[in-house]
Amino acid sequence: MKFLLLLLLLIASPLYTQTFAPPLSRPLKNSGLRNSVSPDAAGLLYADQESGLINQASLEGTFMKPPKSLLPLKTGTVKSGSGFGGGKETLFKERGRAIQKVLKKDGVVRIDGVLNKDTCAELRSWVLREADLRRSEVDSGTASISDHFSDVLLRKNRCDLRLPLSPLVETCVSGMTDPSTDLGYLLHSTLGPTSPLHELASMISYPSSSRQTAHPDTPYNSGIPLLTIFVALQDVDITMGPTTFLPGTNKSDKHAKFQSDHDNFLKGSKTVCAELKAGDCSCFDSRTIHLGGANLSEVERAMFYVSFRNPEFVAVGNPPSIKPELEGKFALEDCSRM
Ligand SMILES: O=C(O)CCC(=O)C(=O)O
């Protein structure tokens, strides 16, 4: 449904002019189109639109402000996960509240060291091999795309690989959701322990992938629909097209302007980019407008990502990137006990 809506918008709106009205959310994920026309026809229609999106995205790149670096908070030195006792616990909670405040205001916050570098290197090699393997299965007809991949905006040289809950992935999820760490505390205190694991995937942008158009992952809503965590599996520098966020765009007036006066809105918005070291993450509210950059380097940019859904939302308007057998099976509290 959403994809049909996107197509209508694309056909009806002059992509090459300044009046492009962007669709909401990651518009091409699990397109409903697959259900209504053959995958081949969907592919052809998409290919037709992709060049328009590429043009729109590179145009946006010419007039948007150059990004500053997304920086971690400098608030005290309590080591997360080091155990509590009196002052340490107070400091930890104070820092947790400070992180939560930034998330509320900017819609995105950086937290460093959520996975260790060896784990990142191991997971990175594994996801790159897994993506190649699954792609060859799809090419040979032994698997369908949706068995392993979700639709992604600007899919050429980019993929969104759904991950199995392997022991390695389980270790990562469990570490990231441990409530005695900054990230785990943020997730628990913002969404609560019963929030469902919504997505479990890896976003890989290969060399020569193009810049995405700016987009939120979910339409505006008065509560946070999803919190998404993107962890860098290798150091990400500016040439690799890090995620760029528009801080403060998790608000209703910003969404309204994004829709009604798109290009001027983008021209006037601040941008920050997630030039992360391996193991660092950006954690963002799905309403926050962002984009994946063009990968101009010769290195794959592999990100491990999970998202948790606010339990007050039944649906968020964005089909999840998760293996179907894992969908709805785990809450945040289960993840932290893995
Ligand atoms: O590649 C990234 O860093 C972000 C990707 C993204 O926002 C998307 O595909 O919706």
UniProtKB/TrEMBL annotation:
<dbReference type="InterPro" id="IPR008775">
    <property type="entry name" value="Phytyl_CoA_dOase-like"/>
</dbReference>
<protein>
    <recommendedName>
        <fullName>Phytanoyl-CoA dioxygenase</fullName>
    </recommendedName>
</protein>
<dbReference type="InterPro" id="IPR051961">
    <property type="entry name" value="Fungal_Metabolite_Diox"/>
</dbReference>
<keyword id="KW-0732">Signal</keyword>
<dbReference type="Pfam" id="PF05721">
    <property type="entry name" value="PhyH"/>
</dbReference>
<feature type="signal peptide">
    <location>
        <begin position="1"/>
        <end position="19"/>
    </location>
</feature>
